[in-house]
């Protein structure tokens, strides 16, 4: 049965009003900020004596300053109060801020516009925890990736359209500034109207006492988040993306003007291509992840950020330098090498979408629901600090004589180092990446009733054992990590041994070979189940040498005697004859028949209560699930 497309959420009241509210907020932020940056970059002399390079790095810093100061308070408010009412309060605040900005535009008063930049930072700070805590309350687990993808797409499309309109409106003579002032107020009013359609989202912690000590509360938020190691490192990964994006995007105005020798339309073109990349990458996440939280996409996204960030440096040297008046976007696209730059910017955005969407979904699914908004607020604090650091690094490096293309290269290299560090701390990311690559390159895997694998709570999974990649295929199908029980000799194999040790697999040996290791394995299994983990065993005890299912041993009965948890039978189909199976069939002949990507299937059966578990009964269930397809 086919599942609804992620865009179907846009027809439902539980999602659509929220989507349009956040879309219009992102649109208005950038409609205002971009107009201000363009005006101060291309008409700086009439507004300020500061250099354009300093301005383009300073304004984003002022915008994110409230994230550092007020995120902790915003997280408390979002956990304490009902979210639709809080959203309406935030949108009324936006209307007031845009009226102040309008006054600044019309009176040519720069300090009022700067105050509005800070005010919109406050607006976004208050809305951020509400935005990402609202989704898990309204969406099902299998809708989270799609919902986050559509939300991120909407955010970046809103950013894109706001940047385009802001850059276009403000340069219109003689009434561009007036158009800008009216447009920002009108969009704020539309966002306010949309917010009144958002359904009620109850407060998870209404008894919470709000602490107005933002410094102390910020440290408490981050300290609480650090208790969940995977969530905290995911927050750091998320913040790193904003560091990367802030460092690159802040250079686009000066890069377009001074390096590419283009006018403001070239700046808009770069932002457009980048935003389209992020939007398309965010939407593709649902398809690539199979509608589950697939953190294997995070290393994939990180690789692309480094590869195409570095190539942007090299591509910048291949552009034919223009002379004379600054070129518009259409004229510049005819210059040699410009299309390579645009492709790099597009792919940086797309791989950024692959990187950021699974991280958001992972944080939403694994953090304490009662602390969701405060966790998001803690992440916003980190985001702000990382973005301030990005602005500071850009100012320092450019002051030391670095060119903007060199800054792109430094960012790409830093990304590679940070990714290696984070993934070494949380090997689950790399494990999921290897599994995801396997089932999206070498194999085509069909999942049958995979929703029977529980999203939370302990359970024992049992499956037939056909090849050395069984665990990787099963792991890729699961929405959460699995502790595999495996023959201790597998851990001695060069690559597979490292993979399974990294995945915290549990080694086991026959009693006659190593009784101590066997008993330790059962203790480790009981401990894993006590902690609420999924544990997978292959009751045959060894790979099949005939393609048929061997007798199930009694270990599974011993496990459920100690830990009263359900047992979920599963069956792999199509792996017999694999290069890493014990089939004597000619692998190349089989590959020729199957095509470049062989078809596999994983069928999941209904849970069996612990009191009903027997090795013979489980074998019958697995055999029925497998059928005749080996």
TrEMBL record:
- Respond yes or no to whether keyword DNA-binding is given for this record: no
Phospholipid/glycerol acyltransferase domain location, by residue? Answer: 459-575
Q: Mind listing the UniProt keywords for this protein, alphabetically?
A: Cell membrane, Membrane, Transmembrane, Transmembrane helix, Transport
| Gene Ontology annotations for the cellular component aspect, listed alphabetically | plasma membrane
User: Where would you find this protein in the cell?
Assistant: Cell membrane
Q: Which domain of life is it from?
A: Bacteria
- Lipid bilayer topology: Multi-pass membrane protein
Task: Using the UniProt record, give the first listed, main subcellular location.
Answer: membrane
Q: This chain belongs to which protein, by name?
A: MFS transporter
**Protein source organism:** Duganella vulcania
């Amino acid at each position: 049965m086919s599942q609804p497309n992620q865009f179907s959420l846009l027809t439902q009241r539980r999602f659509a009003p929220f989507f349009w509210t956040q879309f219009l907020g992102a649109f208005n932020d950038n409609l205002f900020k971009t107009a201000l940056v363009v005006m101060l970059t291309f008409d700086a002399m009439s507004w300020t004596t500061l250099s354009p390079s300093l301005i383009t790095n300073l304004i984003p810093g002022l915008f994110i300053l409230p994230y550092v100061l007020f995120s902790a308070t915003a997280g408390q408010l979002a956990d304490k109060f009902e979210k639709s009412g809080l959203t309406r309060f935030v949108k009324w605040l936006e209307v007031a801020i845009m009226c102040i900005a309008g006054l600044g535009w019309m009176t040519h008063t720069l300090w009022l516009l700067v105050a509005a930049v800070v005010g919109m930072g406050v607006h976004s700070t208050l809305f951020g925890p509400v935005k990402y805590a609202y989704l898990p309350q309204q969406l099902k687990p299998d809708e989270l990736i799609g919902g986050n993808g559509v939300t991120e797409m909407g955010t970046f499309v809103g950013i894109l359209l706001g940047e385009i309109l802001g850059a276009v409106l403000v340069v219109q003579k003689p009434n561009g500034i007036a158009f800008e002032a009216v447009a920002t107020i009108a969009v704020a009013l539309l966002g306010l109207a949309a917010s009144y359609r958002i359904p009620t989202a109850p407060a998870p912690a209404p008894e919470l006492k709000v602490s107005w000590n933002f410094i102390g509360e910020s440290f408490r938020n981050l300290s609480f988040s650090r208790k969940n190691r995977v969530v905290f490192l995911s927050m750091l990964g998320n913040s790193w993306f904003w560091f990367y994006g802030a460092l690159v995007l802040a250079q686009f105005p000066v890069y377009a003007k001074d390096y590419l020798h283009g006018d403001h339309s070239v700046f808009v073109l770069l932002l457009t291509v980048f935003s389209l990349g992020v939007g398309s990458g965010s939407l593709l996440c649902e398809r690539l992840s199979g509608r589950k939280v697939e953190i294997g996409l995070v290393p994939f996204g990180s690789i692309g950020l480094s590869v195409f960030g570095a190539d942007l440096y090299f591509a910048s040297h291949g552009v034919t330098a223009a002379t004379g008046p600054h070129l518009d976007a259409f004229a510049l696209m005819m210059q040699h090498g410009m299309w390579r730059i645009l492709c790099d910017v597009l792919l940086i955005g797309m791989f950024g979408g692959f990187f950021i969407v699974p991280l958001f979904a992972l944080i939403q699914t694994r953090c304490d629901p009662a602390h969701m908004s405060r966790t998001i607020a803690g992440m916003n604090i980190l985001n702000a600090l990382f973005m301030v650091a990005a602005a500071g690094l850009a100012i320092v490096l450019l002051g030391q004589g670095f060119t903007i293309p060199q800054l792109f290269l430094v960012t790409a290299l830093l990304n590679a180092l940070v990714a290696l560090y984070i993934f070494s701390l949380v090997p689950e990311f790399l494990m999921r990446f290897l599994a995801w690559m396997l089932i999206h390159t070498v194999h085509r895997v069909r999942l049958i009733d995979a929703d029977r694998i529980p999203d939370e709570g302990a359970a024992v999974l049992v499956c037939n054992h056909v090849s050395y990649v069984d665990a990787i295929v099963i792991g890729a199908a699961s929405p959460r990590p699995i502790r595999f029980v495996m023959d201790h000799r597998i851990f001695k194999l060069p690559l597979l041994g490292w993979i399974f040790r990294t995945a915290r697999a549990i080694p086991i040996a026959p009693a006659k070979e190593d009784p101590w290791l066997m008993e330790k394995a059962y203790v480790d299994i009981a401990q894993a189940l006590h902690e609420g983990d999924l544990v997978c065993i292959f009751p045959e005890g060894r790979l099949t040498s005939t393609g048929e299912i061997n007798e199930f041993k009694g270990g599974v009965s011993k496990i459920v005697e100690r830990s009263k948890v359900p047992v979920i039978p599963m069956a792999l189909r199509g792996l017999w004859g694999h290069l890493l199976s014990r089939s004597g069939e000619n692998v190349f002949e089989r590959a020729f028949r199957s095509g470049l990507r062989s078809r596999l299937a994983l069928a999941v059966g209904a849970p069996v209560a612990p009191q009903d578990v027997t090795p013979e009964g489980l074998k019958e269930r697995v055999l029925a699930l497998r059928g005749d397809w080996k």
